[in-house]
Amino acid sequence: MVDKNAKRTLPIEQAPEVRSHNFEEVNSGFTADMAIAEASRCLNCKNPKCVEGCPVNVHIPDFIALCAQGKFIEAAKVIKGTNNLPSVCGRVCPQEEQCEKNCIRQKLGGAVAIGSLERFCADYALTAGVKPEKNAQPNGKRVAIAGSGPAGLSCAADLAKAGFDVTVFEAFHKPGGVLVYGIPEFRLPKKLVQAEIDSLKELGVKFELNVVVGKTIFLEELTEEYDAVFLGTGAGLPSFMKIKGENLAGVYSANEYLTRVNLMKAYKPGSDTPIVTGKNVLVVGGGNVAMDAARTALRMGADTVKIVYRRSMEELPARKEEVHHAIEEGIEFLTLNNPVEILGEKKVEGMTVLKMRLGEKDARGRATPIPIEGSEYRIDCDQVIIAIGTSPNPLLHKSCEALETSKRGTILANENGETSIENVYAGGDAVSGAATVILAMGAGKKAAASIIEKLS
Amino acid sequence: MYKIISKRLLAPNVNEYTIEAPKVARNARPGQFIILRVDEEGERVPFTICDMDKEKGYITILVQTVGSSTYKLSLLSVGDAVSDFVGPLGNATDLSAFDDIVLVAGGIGSAVVYPQAKYLASIGKPATVILGARNESLLMYVKEYEACAKKLYIMTDDGSCGEKGFVTQKLQQLLEQKKSDVVMAVGPLMMMKAVCDVTRPFEVHTIVSLNSVMVDGTGMCGCCRVTVGGETKYACVDGPEFDGHLVDFSEAAARSAFYKEKEQAHYCNLRGTVEGGK
Questions:
Q1: What are the residues whose beta carbons fall under 8 Å from the beta carbon of B265, sequence distance 6 or more?
Q2: Is the N or the C terminus of chain B less surrounded, counting Cβ atoms within 10 Å?
Q3: What is the gyration radius of the CA atoms in chain B, in angstroms?
Q4: Is residue A450 part of a domain?
Q5: How open is the CA angle A400-A402-A403, to the nearest 5 degrees?
Q6: At A451, phi and psi to the nearest 5?
Q7: Beta strands A304-309 and A390-391: pairing type?
Q8: Measured between CA atoms, how close is A221 to chain B, in angstroms?
Q9: What is the pLDDT of residues B167-217, one digit of tens each?
Q10: CA A173 to chain CA centroid, nearest Å
Q11: CATH number of the domain enclosing A147
C-alpha cells in the first residue's frame, strides 16, 4: 500500500557555502534506497496527468513502478523509449511546471520527484553501460542534421533507431550545443553529455565537428547530398540592451561568459582561454541563463554578484529551484531595477539604474514594469554580464534565401517541422525562439517522425 | 586533426603555415578567416586566410607569435597537426566594382591584403600596394606582391628597405597626386586609424579589416562587437571589413587590450615551462 503521508524525498545537495566555491554538481541526486522510497510514493494513477505535462510523453508511472521494484535499468529503458537524453532532462527540465505540476500528490506530501527519479534511473543505466537499441534495419536513407544541441541530438537518435544513416554537423569543436557551452558544469556535468553523445555514436550517428552550415557547407549542398535535412541551429545570438557603455571592455554577453567558462574551461587554472574575474559583478536578466551566469561568476571568485531585474521576484522567468539555489549561495537580487547606462572610461566602472514599479498585467499575464522618474542611482561594479535573452543566428538563412523566416528571425516551420524548402525540417529554439531543452527535444522528435513517415 | 603541410619563417616571430583543411578551402574566398585550436586544451584563435589552394584543399595563414596559443603553434612543424580548424568565417571582400584601388598593409596585415592583391590581378584590376614595416627584416610577401601589384611601394621606419617613413606618408602623396576610388588598410589598429585620418579629407572610401578577440566566430558570443557609425556590429559575422571612417577605434583598442595582462602572464608561464624543460 502506498503511504499517503510520506513526504517527497529531497536529493542530496552540497551546502551552499561549500558549493559556491567549486564547479562540482550542486545536487548529487538520489541513492538507490532514496529512489525506491520516492518511487513508492507514486499512486500509479489510471489516468496519469504527469504524462500529459511532459513534452516528450515519457511513460512516467510505468518507469516509476519499475524503479520502485529496484529495476532501474528496465525503468531507464522505458524512459529512453520516448526521451533520448534522460540524464540531461532529469537535471535541467522545469519539472515543476510540467510533469510534477500535474502530480496528484501535490497536496499529499508534495509531488513525486519525477525529475530526480528520471535522473537516477538514467544515470544508473549509463554507469552500467547499457547500450541503446536499434529497432530497424538500415534503410539506406541519409539525413543531415545541422546543430548538435538538444533538438538535433533528439532528432538524430530517433532517426538512427529507425534505420537512417545520420550525420550531425556541429560548428564548435565539441558536440552538445547549449548543453556544453551554456549550461554550467555544476548543473549538468559535461561527462554526462559526452556519455549521451557516445550512446548516439553506438547507434551509428556520425558527428562532423568544425562545420558551420551556411559557411563551411551550404544548405543547398546538404539537400543535394542527403534525403532530408534537419535544422536545429538554436537561438545563439545574444541580445543586448542598446544602452550607452554596453561595448566597454568588461561587458560580457552571458553566452560569451558561459562559453569561456564551460566549453573553453576557463575555470581551470592554467586554461589557454582567458577570462577576467570580476570583483563586483552585475548580471542583467532574470532567466535561467542569468542564474547560471551569476552563480558561475561567484564560483570564479567574485566578491559580490547581483542580479539586476526590472520586474519583481514574482515574475522571474528562471526555474524556482535555480532562484532558490542562487539565493542560498549569496546572490543578491536587485529587482525592480532597470539599467540605463554602463559607466566607465575604457573598462566598466559602474552602472546607472532606474527604479521601476509594477503596472497592469500584459497579454501574457506578467506585470509591466513602469519607470519611476528621477529614481536613477549608481551601482559600482567592474563586470557586467548581460543575460536578457537570445535570438536565432541569422548566419544560416543569410546564406540561403529560400529558407523563410519570421520577422524575429526564427525559421518558419509547420507542426510537422517542415520548412519552406522541400525535405528540409527545423525545430527547437531556431523555430520557437529561446525556450527549454525539453521543448527543443520534443521538436526534434516531431521532425524525426515526419521524416520517417515521408521517407519510409 | 588538420595537418601542417608547410611552415616558413617569414620574419622574426612570424611563421607562414599551410594547413590541410579541404572543407574550409572548398568555399573559402579572399577576406574570410578561420578559427583554430592548437590542441585539446587550446583556445579558439582567429586568423585571416592569406592564401588557398582549392584543388589540394590547403589554407595558408600567417601567425605572429604574441601569446600562448601562437607560441604553442610556433613549436609545431611540418607533419604535426592542429586539433581544430573551422571556416571559412566572416564575409568575403569584393573590391571588383572599383577601378583605382590602393591596398595599404602594415606588419602582419600583409597576410590579409595579399589574397586581395592576387585576386584583383587575376581579374585584370591590379592594385597599387603600400607595404610598411619597422625595418627590412619585418617585411613580408614582397616577391608575391611584386608579381601581382600594379605598383608596389615599400616603407620602413628606418629606411632599411624602400623609402624611409610611414605608409600614411606615401598614401598622402599618392592621394595628392590622384584620388583613388578606394583604399583598403590592414594592420595594427592605430595604423588603420591613421590611414583613415589621411583619407578622410580626400573623401576616399576606406575599408579596414578588424582582427577582434573572438570565441566562436559565428555571432554567438558577441565578444568581437565594435561600434561602427554608432551601431554595434560583430566583426565575425558583419565583418571583418568595415567602413574605416565609421569605426570607433578607441573602443576597439580598449576591447582588444582587455585580455592582454592575462594572456601575457599565461604566455610567460608556458614559455617558462617549455624552455625551462629543455
A1: none
A2: C
A3: 18
A4: yes
A5: 75
A6: -65, -45
A7: unpaired
A8: 11
A9: 999 999 999 999 999 999 999 999 999 999 999 999 999 999 998 888 999
A10: 19
A11: 3.50.50.60
Task: Give yes or no for B75 touching A (CB within 8 A).
Answer: no
User: Rounded to an integer, what distance in angstroms lies between the CA atom of residue B50 and that of residue B58?
Assistant: 11
- Mutant choice from B19, B24, B54, B221 vs A, greatest count of A C-beta within 10 A: B221
Give the residue-averaged pLDDT of A351-364. Answer: 93
Facing residue for B84 by CB, picked from A173, A237, A393:
A173
Number of domains in chain A: 3
Tens digits of residue pLDDT in B1-54: 999 999 999 988 999 999 999 999 999 999 999 999 999 999 999 999 989 999
Contacts of A254 in chain B (CB under 8 A): none
Q: What's the pLDDT tens digit per position in B126-174?
A: 999 999 999 999 998 999 999 999 999 999 999 999 999 999 999 999 9
Same domain, B203 and B104: yes
Decide: residue B223, CB within 10 A, 0-12 exposed, 13-18 middle, 19+ buried: buried
Instruction: Encode B149-169: b = buried (16+ Cβ within 10 Å), e = exposed.
Output: bbebbbbbeeeebbeeebbbe
**Shortest CA distance to B236 belongs to which of A170, A388, A342, A237?**
A237
Q: For chain B, what's the residue count?
A: 278
The interface predicted TM-score (ipTM) is 0.92
Q: Apex CA B12: angle with CA B11 and CA B18, to 5°? A: 55
B205 in contact with chain A, both atoms CB, cutoff 8 A:
no
Grid cell 502530480 is found at A103
Residues A325, A406, single domain; the answer is no
Spatial distance between the Cα atoms of B61 and B241, rounded to a whole number of angstroms? 18
Min Cα separation A345/chain B (Å): 10
User: B225, A250: Cβ pair inside 8 Å?
Assistant: no
Q: Which residues of B touch A347 (CB under 8 A)?
A: 254, 258
- Residue A176's domain comprises 142-235+391-455
Q: B218 vs A238: CB contact, 8 Å cut-off? A: no
**What's the predicted TM-score (pTM) here?**
0.94
Q: Report the C-alpha gap between A143 and A139 in whole angstroms.
A: 11
